[in-house]
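Journal club prep — side note

Before the paper discussion, L.F. wants everyone to see what a predicted structure for a comparable chain looks like in C-alpha cell form. Sequence:
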Amino acid sequence: MFLTIALVLIVLWALGFFIFPIAGGLVHILLIIAVIAIIWHFIKGRGTTPRV
C-alpha cells in the first residue's frame, strides 16, 4: 500500500515539476512524502500474519 502511494506521489511530483513550475513548494512536499512512504515500506516490510 505504501509503495503504491509513494509511486502516485512521485508521478504527481514529476507532473507538477515539469507542467506546473509555479507550485514548486507544494511539489517538493509531495516528493518528500513519497520518499518517506518508500522508506517506511522497506523498513516495515511484509507482516508475518497471512491476510484473509
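L.F.'s comment for the group: DSSP finds two helices and no strands in the chain. Keep this in mind when we get to the figures.
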